[in-house]
Design brief:
Elements lengths: L3 E3 L20 E5 L2 H5 L5 H20 L3 E5 L10 H12 L3 E5 L4 H8 L1 H5 L2 E5 L8 H8 L7 H12 L40 H13 L16 H15 L23 H6 L4 H13 L5 H25 L27 H13 L4 H14 L4 H11 L5 H12 L16 H7 L20 H12 L1 H4 L8 H7 L2 H19 L4
Parallel strand pairs: 1-2, 1-4, 2-3, 4-5
Helix pairs in contact: 2-8, 6-12, 7-12, 9-11, 11-12, 12-16, 13-14, 15-16, 18-21
The chain binds flavin-adenine dinucleotide (FAD) and iron/sulfur cluster (SF4).
Length: about 500
């Protein structure tokens, strides 16, 4: 019996479970729909990357002899929604049986589950085995645990996949984690290595024109555009990263440098999340580079931990707690997102830099996301939904399953500690230590109060003071409240007044 096999924009993998036993008389459906392109106002580079990668993937499937029904955004019959396109395809082709791979997002899963009742289709949903930990396995691992920690999950994953594990089962080098070696402040002269620029195919040029005219008012610049849009190109980037850049990945993983958007980060997340690269092949290549003495252990382990550990862990947390997770707001944070997140002017050099990278590249690296834009949102008590919408809109690697736990859980502690054990709150002193931003900023990271005091400083203490009832018992914040209590009443009042002044200037667009 013939089947309709739906491939979503982030399922561009030959090995996708929905394609496993595809027959010549099946039809593969791929569609560009307005609903998905605009449910948040995605960065134009993200839309262009996905449409171009989808079109190339569809062409590759056709070249292999598969029947592909590809619906472009401008197709006059395009209904604008996934459900509409499935309905139209099944009616046109006379098919009632569908095969899909489980989608990354809860929202889309609900949509697919409605197709049986709504459209009278039989939908077979297969697990997404590109992930290294199935949702069932994560649920079993989590079951009965009072407190889950990524580190223990990661060790299990290392053992399961035998990555950086010795014959006797011990971790390579004797330690599970070399993170302590990966937190160096930027060395003088630290710059980003050059990056590969892929030639633009005819398909990509057409997509760039389409995106430029259709989404002109979405935040972000479309060109120059250098993303890989095929697996072959993504593999070139992966190999280049492993050869030239991974050896330096570890040491300065947390560093930030003015004018340097990428430093030694891999820039692979968009490709992994869309399916052009597979997490296991990346981890294996990184391990091989270590075993061949090409990459130091702290770099290989640190990089593998992000993919085999964090990436799988956040997905597990998402599916374990959805749909309730989306409504959590531990601190009841509701302050409107200031205009400077969308490129409005601010004198805070660190924020201005992170937003500029985001606008230009649909990218900023992890520490900018966590300790600059995320940290500010946390300590200023910005509205958790608005902050999440921002992260989901502006990054080319953003999908709710990975964005939400990172934003709501890791950056905002809005889940009250389901993902992380303490809020990643930091004052300007941390940013000053880990970057060279402060030297060029109107504000001074050493000052707590006054016109030129770094806004992060007073907000940091104000955050802990106003959330004392929720955080005081947290074992991982041993010195925060003892230090605060040692401040004189005048000092405490001065800090609170300063925070109020920061909020007032922020509301007026004067920060
Ligand atoms: C507030 C916030 C929002 C984020 N939103 C996203 C998002 O929408 N999509 C996304 O893929 N990542 C997100 N991250 C995680 C991380 O910042 C990005 O994966 C990383 O910056 C991508 O750049 P890179 O490929 O150069 O990563 P590298 O630094 O080179 O790391 C290697 C790989 O590890 C994986 N990885 C690293 N950290 C994480 C993490 N915390 N969670 C999941 N995977 C991780 C990625 O696949 C990444 O490509 C977010 C982090 C924060 C703090
Ligand atoms: S002084 Fe404060 S606001 Fe300015 S760059 Fe440093 S941390 Fe950011």
């Amino acid at each position: 019996m013939s089947h309709l096999r739906l491939i979503l924009a982030d399922q561009l993998s030959d090995s996708l479970s929905a394609l496993a036993d595809v027959e010549a008389d099946d039809t593969v459906l791929m569609c560009e729909v307005m609903e998905e392109a605009t449910y948040v106002r995605h960065h134009p580079k993200k839309i262009a990357f996905l449409f171009a990668a989808m079109r190339h993937f569809a062409a590759e499937l056709s070249d292999k002899g598969l029947q592909v029904r590809y619906v472009t955004l401008t197709d006059p019959d395009n209904t604008g929604s996934l459900t509409g396109e499935v309905e139209r395809a099944t009616a046109d082709l006379g098919l009632r049986q569908m095969i899909v791979t489980e989608p990354g997002e809860y929202r889309v899963c609900q949509m697919m589950e409605s197709w049986h009742a709504k459209l009278g289709l039989t939908v077979e949903m297969r697990p997404d085995d590109r992930f290294l930990c199935s949702i069932d396995r994560f649920t079993r691992w989590a079951s009965g645990k009072k407190q889950m920690r990524m580190e223990y999950f990661y060790r299990e994953m290392r053992k399961s996949y035998h990555i950086l594990i010795e014959q006797d089962g011990s971790p390579t080098g004797g330690q599970w984690n070399y993170d302590k070696e990966n937190r160096k402040p930027p060395a003088k002269g630290l710059v980003s290595p050059t990056r590969i620029r892929h030639p633009q195919s005819a398909i990509l040029k057409e997509v760039l024109a389409l995106v430029g005219t259709t989404f002109p008012d979405h935040f972000g610049t479309l060109e120059p555009f250098h993303f890989a849009v095929t697996r072959a190109q993504a593999l070139i980037e992966l190999d280049d990263f492993i050869t030239r850049i991974l050896p330096h990945f570890g040491d300065y993983q947390d560093a930030m440098v003015q004018g340097e958007a990428f430093l030694n980060h891999s820039l692979l997340s968009s490709y992994i999340n869309a399916g052009l690269l597979l997490p296991l092949e990346i981890c294996r290549k990184a391990e091989a580079a270590y075993r061949n003495n090409h990459v130091p252990l702290n770099a290989a382990e640190g990089f593998i931990r992000q993919i085999l550990g964090w990436r799988e862990y956040v997905r597990g947390i998402y599916w374990l707690h959805m749909p309730d997770y989306a409504d959590l707001n531990f601190f009841d944070a509701k302050r409107p997102l200031p205009a400077f997140y969308w490129g409005g002017s601010t004198a805070m050099a660190c924020i201005s830099e992170a937003v500029a990278h985001t606008r230009e590249h649909a990218y900023s690296h992890h520490i900018q996301r966590l300790m600059v834009t995320g940290n500010f949102a946390l300590i200023a008590g910005l509205d958790v939904k608005q902050v999440q919408d921002w992260y989901l809109s502006v990054y080319s690697d953003a999908y709710e399953w990975v964005e939400m736990p990172n934003t709501l859980g890791m950056a905002l502690f809005g889940d009250g500690g389901l993902l992380g054990s303490k809020p990643y709150a930091a004052s300007g002193k941390y940013i000053d230590k880990m970057s060279n931003y402060c030297a060029g900023c109107r504000y001074n990271p050493q000052e707590m109060t006054g016109k030129t005091a770094c806004p992060f400083n007073a907000l940091y203490w104000d955050f802990f003071a106003r959330n004392r009832n929720k955080l005081e018992a947290n074992q991982r914040l041993p010195f925060v409240y003892t230090t605060w209590d040692k401040f004189s009443p005048d000092r405490q009042t001065g800090i609170k007044d300063q925070a109020a002044s920061v909020f007032s200037r922020m509301a007026q667009g004067l920060l």
